[in-house]
Design a protein that fits this description.
about 260 residues, alpha/beta, Rossmann fold, single chain, two-stranded antiparallel sheet, about 45% helix
Length: about 260
Amino acid sequence: MQGNKNMDEKNEGLGSEPRAQVPVYQRGPVIMRGKMVPKDTTNQHLLTPSADTSWLHTDPWRVLRIQAEFVDGFGALAEIGPAVTIFGSARTSRDDPYYVAARKCGQLVAQQGVAVITGGGPGIMEAANRGATEMGGSSVGLGIELPHEQALNEWVNLGMNFRYFFVRKTMFMKYSSGSIIFPGGFGTLDEAFEELTLVQTGKSPKVPIALFGRSYWEGLFDWLRDSMLADGNISAEDLKLFKITDDPVEAASIALSQLEGA
């Protein structure tokens, strides 16, 4: 009993002694004590010059650049009003019938007070921007940084260059109420199928899509029907997501149909 009494006397007051003072540091919402306290502050990091620029190429910094592109794009395009996107090859010459037709489409869209959006380059894009500008309309060019540098065409009156394809394509989809897709290469197909996929899966509101150039697109349509549909990889309704035409008036009417019915 005496031993227990002595032990009780020794234990009496345990926990009542104040803990030795330890350094406490708060960095934003994070609290650090003792050995976890850093030797410098966030502000010191900000103001300390560094010869090492490798941080410019890290993923966190890349995320900030991507975010900045979204912010700049939304800010630049938010007030353009209703718009139609016109896609097509950068390689189309000015004497090509498709160039003439794209220019006419740009004019017809602009005459309805609707902005024309293109990729901002030469060829079909230049033709559509040219037509819109000639009618006093909003002529938008969304360029992309490429190894073979491609400047925005002279007919763009609101232009922006992007580093990232996926940010640029988001702008096309977000601000477009209809599309006219002229003959083009891999880039044009990428944009066409991106739009078709988002509409088909319900990730984007349904927008009217015109494929211009029957002789160019019918082979693709036949393959979609005879291979993809026949094998059950798409439904018959998916083939109704677009219409093929050779008439600029009809192409513009298709692209504008959602706005006319609004």
